């Protein structure tokens, strides 16, 4: 688990990844008391441009092409990572515990952005954030079928007030008994969330569109929107939600 977490902090070039995998595999085999062998697969699950961006080999760093030029530290970055991964691999192979090292600094507040913050939002007179601008348009036969698209538009606010990283802007809920249960959110390819300003350029709207998958169960559904707003740039976030009318899927 520890190794898995470390592999998520940067993106290795192809050759850097090969060298790291070979070093880790060799360490596992030599310290695993027969548990590991040449058939052991070592997989790097690196996420693009995360905490320390790219990791290139010494030779690639000297060339300073794209990935190497985005290796933030020095030409020995790969060697440093390899050294620490070998320590982790050895401890894992031997079943030993290791001391927790220092946490990397949180540099979020030190990052520069040329994109100005939103200045504040308000809904149209007589409306609240989360109210419907355009509710679900139900087919003439009264029921959606698999493959149809259901959409609704809400009065909303700029999503950059809070990206809801641990949440979601859009949910499809299914009525189960007396309760609405989330069944799809914006992690799913079938659900789309679009934010923009309306034609007056004064107010924000958010549209949720659901392409009903073939595997969706028949039943009653609704679309729900989550968001946050600020009255002024420096005022606290205020959170809101809104829901469309219910509709049937057969």
TrEMBL record:
InterPro entries: Ceramidase_alk, NCDase_C_sf, NEUT/ALK_ceramidase_C, NEUT/ALK_ceramidase_N. GO terms for molecular function: metal ion binding; N-acylsphingosine amidohydrolase activity. Zn(2+) binds at residues 11, 54. Keywords: Endoplasmic reticulum, Glycoprotein, Golgi apparatus, Hydrolase, Lipid metabolism, Metal-binding, Secreted, Signal, Sphingolipid metabolism, Zinc. It is found in: Endoplasmic reticulum; Golgi apparatus; Secreted. Its main location: endoplasmic reticulum. Residues 85-249 form the Neutral/alkaline non-lysosomal ceramidase C-terminal domain. This is ceramidase. It comes from Castanea mollissima.
């Amino acid at each position: 688990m520890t190794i898995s977490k470390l592999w998520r902090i940067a993106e290795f070039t192809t050759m850097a990844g090969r060298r790291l995998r070979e070093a880790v595999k060799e360490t596992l085999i030599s310290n695993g008391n027969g548990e590991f062998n040449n058939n052991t697969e070592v997989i790097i699950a690196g996420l693009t441009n995360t905490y320390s961006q790219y990791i290139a080999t010494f030779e690639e760093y000297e060339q300073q092409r794209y990935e190497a030029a985005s290796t933030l530290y020095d030409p020995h970055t790969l060697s440093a990572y390899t050294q620490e991964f070998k320590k982790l691999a050895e401890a894992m192979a031997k079943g030993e515990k290791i001391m927790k090292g220092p946490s990397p600094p949180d540099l979020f507040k030190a990052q520069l952005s040329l994109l100005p913050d939103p200045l504040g939002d308000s809904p149209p007179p007589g409306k609240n954030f989360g109210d419907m601008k355009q509710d679900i348009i139900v087919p003439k036969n009264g029921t959606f079928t698999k493959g149809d698209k259901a959409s609704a538009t809400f009065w909303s606010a700029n999503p950059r007030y809070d990206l809801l990283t641990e949440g979601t802007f859009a949910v499809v809920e299914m009525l189960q008994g007396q309760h609405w249960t989330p069944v799809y959110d914006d992690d799913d390819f079938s659900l789309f969330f679009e934010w923009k300003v309306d034609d007056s350029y004064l107010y924000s709207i958010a549209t949720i569109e659901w392409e009903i998958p073939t595997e969706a169960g028949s039943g009653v559904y609704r679309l729900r929107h989550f968001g946050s707003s600020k009255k002024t740039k420096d005022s606290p976030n205020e959170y809101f939600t809104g829901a469309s009318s219910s509709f049937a899927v057969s």
